[in-house]
Design brief:
Helices cover 74% and strands 0% of the residues. With 196 residues, the chain is mainly α.
């Protein structure tokens, strides 16, 4: 019987250790996720605002609504991520109170508070990630749809696209110069490829 209780203690100890490691990893992932979304969305919004004119001429661009939607998306990503961080920070006091009631006073309903708060933070993260992905899709779509329109074509390329590729034509021979005739043949023989 004693070995059974020792085994249970070992299992509980390992469970507690594993749980703590997983929770620490989850916290680290959440911090990295928030930082990455903030940095990327801020950076892409800034780059988009500053340099889009160098890629596409806005005055002649089509599908401008895609560009505006991407800017709104990057802005919303920033807002949602910051709101998630602020919400989580504001709820720490409430979570500490609930933890005390759950663990020390054995009030089961207190655990539900932590589940609700955690689910709300998860929803913030899902929304901010989804909006970020949409903003990237809108930006890329805007550039691709307008890039082909912006690429200048040379006059010859334009003629080829209208009339098709010309067939091989003989090169024009320069006109003969009039030379005084001395009775000698001054013509240089034409060399043909492959024959010496």
């Amino acid at each position: 019987m004693e070995s059974n209780s020792d085994d249970k203690k070992v299992r509980e100890s390992l469970y507690d250790k594993t749980r703590e490691e997983l929770l620490a990893q989850q916290r680290s992932n959440a911090e990295t996720y928030d930082k990455s979304l903030l940095a990327l969305s801020s950076g892409l919004l800034g780059i988009s605002l500053a340099f889009i004119k160098d890629v596409v001429t806005l005055a002649h661009a089509e599908y401008k609504y895609l560009l505006f939607a991407s800017w709104i998306g990057f802005g919303l990503t920033i807002i949602l991520t910051i709101a998630s961080i602020i919400y989580g920070q504001c709820k720490i006091r409430q979570l500490l109170d609930a933890a005390e009631r759950y663990y020390l006073k054995e009030k089961e309903e207190a655990r539900e508070e932590s589940v609700k708060i955690s689910n709300k933070i998860d929803r913030f993260n899902i929304w901010s990630g989804s909006v970020f992905i949409l903003a990237i899709v809108f930006s890329i779509s805007f550039v691709i749809l307008n890039l082909n329109k912006e690429m200048p074509m040379g006059k010859q390329d334009n003629e080829i696209s209208k009339k098709g590729q010309p067939t091989n034509q003989f090169q024009k021979v320069p006109p003969k110069e009039s030379q005084p005739s001395s009775g000698k043949n001054t013509k240089t023989p034409i060399k043909r490829p492959g024959k010496e």
